[in-house]
Write a structure and sequence with these properties.
about 140 residues; mainly beta; five-stranded mixed beta barrel; 6 strands; about 0% helix
Length: about 140
């Protein structure tokens, strides 16, 4: 029996995110957003703006810092519910950041019916990158 339909994505909860993982699909709410970089870069005749915002997003299991780039920034309004498709974990100074690159999508969705658990911020957990030597 051939499976012709698209695979329904398995949704990940924020507290299941681990360093070095990718391919996550999550439903999150934006808690907070702040622009960290906004600069114009010449791109041929027109000047393209490069924008990066650090946004606290989360679900009922916890929160994490999401690094929004360019047009993603426009969706990052506090209170907005989003689906992050094919998101990955980047490490920044030993802590996890969630990001969606060109292989993924950020899309607004109907308001999620959960309350964000704000006292469990995964981006505050520091990971020491330890190289395990196989005996």
């Amino acid at each position: 029996m051939a499976d012709t339909g698209l695979r329904k994505p398995v949704f990940t909860k924020v507290d299941q995110l681990r360093p070095g993982t990718n391919g996550h699909t999550l439903t999150v709410k934006v808690v907070d957003s702040k622009m960290v970089m906004q600069k114009n870069r010449p791109a041929g005749p027109q000047v393209r703006q490069m924008r990066i915002a650090e946004c606290l997003v989360g679900d009922e299991t916890g929160t994490i810092v999401f690094t929004a780039r360019n047009e993603q920034v426009d969706l990052m309004k506090p209170g907005t519910s989003l689906i992050l498709r094919n998101a990955k974990i980047d490490m920044f100074k030993g802590s996890m950041r969630l990001a969606v690159d060109k292989w993924g999508r950020v899309e607004a969705t109907d308001p999620a019916d959960f309350t964000v658990k704000e006292d469990n911020n995964l981006s505050l957990v520091e990971y020491e990158l330890v190289n395990v030597v196989e005996e």
